[in-house]
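Hi, here's the filled form for the chain we discussed.

Project: internal
Contact: R.S.
Residues: 401
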Amino acid sequence: MTVTLIRNVRLTGSDEPTPGNVLIRDGQITAVDRDTGPGGYKADVEIDGNGQLLIPGMIDVHIHGADGFDMMDGTIRSVEAVSEACARTGCTSFLATSVSSSLESLFGMISSVSRVKGRESGARIAGMHIEGPFLNVKRKGMQNEQFLRHPDLDEMKAILQNAGSLIRMVTLAPELPGGLEMVAFLKARGIIVSVAHSDATYEEAKQAFQSGASHVTHCFNGMRPIHHRDPGMIVAAFEENHVSVQAIVDDVHLHPAIVRMLYREKGADKMVLITDALQAMGMGDGTYLFGGHKVTVTQGVAKLEDGTLASSTVTMNMALAKTVRAGIPLNDAVLMATETPANVLGLSRKGRIAPGMDADLVLLNEQFKVLWTIIDGKIVYRRSKGGDEALKETGGSGVPE
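And the returned structure, exactly as it came back:
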């Protein structure tokens, strides 16, 4: 039994972060002391947070790739690389997210994700998010049109049979023929139904939400825009209290004023920060192949040859920083990246720093750079003075400099 004391950190939960200490035993938080003193705890390992900000591990419900790896490659290494990149950027759990493809390619991804799940070297796989192929061509965005098709229950049954309980979220266009039947089918099986890449009217979206859809993928992007005589899906989502929304806060997909509007309309408990990152995350500018398309990244912005935005290169810690800079209070911004996605996914032991919760924790400096990441009570990443360092084991070597 290893007991670890994280001392001298600042904790969110009030208007301003307060000093505190966190005690961890066997991968679980056992005590939280909001005080500057050590609390009289006896520990095998003590970690000094040097007065920096300690938050719960962030949870990304929408990520496609990172560090040059695309999880649709169908290789174990691609999934492992995303797990490691997530941990490096303060994300401790994620949904491996597909793009519209052939059934064969999707099954390849499902196989690789299932083989990595349970033995991740970095962030833990919370399941899969199937984005497509049941999407509307009119709002396809970067999705490859040759793979888009109408909802097909037999095909979805085959996917679920192949994936088992791995599928946690499915994004679809509910206005397509068979869309509402698919919503009800997935809802009945405990799968989160999200809507996007959709031309649904306000009335069609309302019907989808009443049929079991409860989430909006990358809100404002890939859907009918708001018009004063045609409010569309976005306004319908604003009016439904049970509906949560994803936000790509990268200063590209959403103007800061829209970020603030989403926050006012849905609140921190229904707004989820995501990356929607492709393999260019962590790689820099260049040319990539994503979803069957040539994607060019210039100054961090990924686009198809026709100028269409093609996912993002933002990381979770960058998204958190940009959300705060957009005018969202720090405590609420942290909720959007931690507790809110945990609640959406039903991860009852993640997303909060409290006794009984999993010890998934991230230490950030004033610039929101990740200093170290703890998953299940073990340090899996730390930022050294000379650069990045991934740690496979905890102990004395796991104490940040």
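Let me know if anything looks off before we file it.
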